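Hi again,

Forgot to attach this to my earlier email, sorry! This is the prediction with threonylcarbamoyladenylate bound. I've pasted everything inline since the attachment limit keeps bouncing my files.
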Amino acid sequence: MQPLNNKTMPHLKTKIGTDIHVAAELLSANNVVAIPTETVYGLAGNIFSEKAIKRIFEVKQRPASNPLIVHVHQLEALNDIVKVIPAEAKILLDAFAPGPLTLLLPKKAAVSDWVTAGLQDVAIRIPDQKLTLALIAEAGFPLAAPSANPYTYISPTSAMHVFKMLDGRIPYILDGGSCRLGLESTIIGFERGKPTLYRKGAITIEEIEDKIGKIKLPVSQKIVAPGMHLKHYSPKTKLILSDDPETDIHKYGNLKVGLITYNAYSNLLPCEQQILLCQDDDFKVAGANLYGAMHLIDSMNYDMIIVRKFPETGIGLSINDRLNRAKAQR
Ligand code: TXA
Ligand code: MG
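Structure tokens for the complex follow:
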């Protein structure tokens, strides 16, 4: 596990539970709480509490220049947060909210620069997770929440992942079980009025384009959002992304290797050194299992993790995006 080294932080007793009243009370008192979503677990705080927002950055050890996503429980709540909703954004909200869709929209003054890192747009989404929707309604304010992992480490898809990474740093983890989708939301912004993809995610490009037509893809590697930073989602073990795992297993034959693959085991390694993300071609299942597999295999002290690259289509694009960043070394 990635050690957190900010010695000034108080050590808290971290509880795991399913009680939204406990979570809402803690949030109302400016604390941060881990929350389940259908994508990954988030590290949540009241967007109107500067103390809570600062604490999110502190717990995550994330630079303050990286903006946060604001989670609301219903469309009406957007009225307090954003100035306008472009027509394409309305179509997407209609199709995918609640769900793994994040939109970048012009913020109202009520949203502090702490949340948006000084940007004019705020990222918003309505998560499709019953407990968390009930929690936001009960709390009475939107929740800013990045993924609940230390900066650059693997995102959590279970309460236990969060506990292992943030035990002692936060008072409460709201347990909603394993995340259904397991990959972060797809982020769409409106650069010069044109729908633009900022992060590949649980909704595929095809699904988005089916609703609003062609979207712009990032043309360069220019970093406009931290999720676009090359190094992200990374295990501590060296990871390589492989078009041809069998060749790489041979190549690194002198090392103890763990393999993450799909469809079929390799004959070149014992099965217990391999994790199968899905049995057939349903790559949404593979996406849901990806981070869990990475957490597990990273705890096994291999010299190297080899991950079989996915076909560059549909959810395979989102999975490969995460793996390309995961392989960048610390
Ligand atoms: O599925 C998800 O989106 C999860 C769950 C918890 O909702 N959240 C998540 O948050 O992935 P985080 O902070 O790990 O990633 C959010 C990404 C970051 O890359 C951030 O830079 C980008 O969204 N972002 C947030 N606000 C932005 C803004 N105003 N403009 C551009 N990018 C923004
Ligand atoms: Mg994240």
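The chain has a mean pLDDT of 93. Residues 37, 39-40, 42, 66-69, 100, 102, 104, 116, 119, 121-123, 125, 127, 145-147, 184-185, 187, 198, 224-227 surround threonylcarbamoyladenylate (ligand 1) (CB under 6 Å).

That should be everything now.

G.
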